[in-house]
């Protein structure tokens, strides 16, 4: 990693001013690389082999060199182009799938609007699920999980329900929920005195 960061130079030069300028320009990049590729993450979480780690280092160096621009480059136009071209292509692809029921047509500009505006009700909501156990390696088992997830009601994931009379919501009668309640009422967006003292507690099945 040290050798990689030495090769990542933005301001060339051996004088003191150039070295200081390069250090300031690459400081955040160095922090990101060192924190992401620390020994613990590489060996325990990522489980990279020597060949995989060397390939990753080479890929980072290549991408870094490709990302550099000349002084005075019109980066605004490049940024607009890099966003506009894929959006246009996504919109064109949408028209091809307009009559196909199995295709997702919420792409292009409408999808970008949902992302930028942080839409609370996306037209085509999606969920990425990482499987464990046998389903992670067996396509048939993974498909069975998909079929079960497509239609899941609250009843299926609920472990227990109970109704409590809680006269003081900020000091709940449920001791194990007190910490959660304290965090919730730190910045309330409503008047706590106007809510009902009756409480419906739903405990989800974490399995």
Automatic annotation (TrEMBL):
It holds the Pfam family RNA_pol_Rpb1_5. Keywords: DNA-directed RNA polymerase, Nucleotidyltransferase, Transcription, Transferase. Its EC number is 2.7.7.6. InterPro entries: DNA-dir_RpoC_beta_prime (IPR045867), RNA_pol_Rpb1_5 (IPR007081), RNA_pol_Rpb1_7_sf (IPR038593). One of its GO terms (biological process) is DNA-templated transcription. The keyword Transcription applies. One of its GO terms (molecular function) is DNA-directed RNA polymerase activity. SUPFAM superfamilies: beta and beta-prime subunits of DNA dependent RNA-polymerase. The keyword Nuclease does not apply. One of its GO terms (cellular component) is RNA polymerase II, core complex. It comes from the Eukaryota. Residues 46-158 form the RNA polymerase Rpb1 domain. PANTHER family: DNA-DIRECTED RNA POLYMERASE, DNA-DIRECTED RNA POLYMERASE II SUBUNIT RPB1. This is DNA-directed RNA polymerase. The lineage of its organism: Eukaryota, Metazoa, Ecdysozoa, Arthropoda, Hexapoda.
């Amino acid at each position: 990693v040290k050798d990689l960061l030495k090769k990542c130079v933005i301001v060339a030069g051996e004088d003191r001013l150039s070295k200081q300028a390069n250090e300031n320009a690459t400081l955040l990049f160095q922090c990101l690389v060192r924190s992401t590729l620390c020994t613990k993450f590489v060996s325990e979480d990522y489980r990279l082999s020597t060949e995989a780690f060397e390939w990753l280092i080479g890929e980072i160096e290549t991408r870094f060199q490709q990302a550099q621009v000349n002084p005075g480059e019109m980066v605004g136009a490049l940024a607009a182009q890099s966003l506009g071209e894929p959006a246009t292509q996504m919109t064109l692809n949408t028209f091809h799938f307009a009559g196909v029921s199995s295709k997702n047509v919420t792409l292009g500009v409408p999808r970008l609007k949902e992302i930028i505006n942080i839409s609370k009700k996306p037209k085509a909501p999606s969920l990425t699920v990482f499987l464990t156990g046998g389903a992670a390696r067996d396509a048939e088992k993974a498909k069975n999980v998909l079929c079960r997830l497509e239609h899941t009601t609250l009843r299926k994931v609920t472990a227990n329900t109970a109704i409590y009379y809680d006269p003081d919501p900020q000091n709940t009668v449920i001791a194990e929920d007190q910490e959660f309640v304290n965090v919730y009422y730190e910045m309330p967006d409503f008047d706590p005195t106007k809510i009902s003292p009756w409480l419906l507690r739903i405990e989800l099945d974490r399995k």
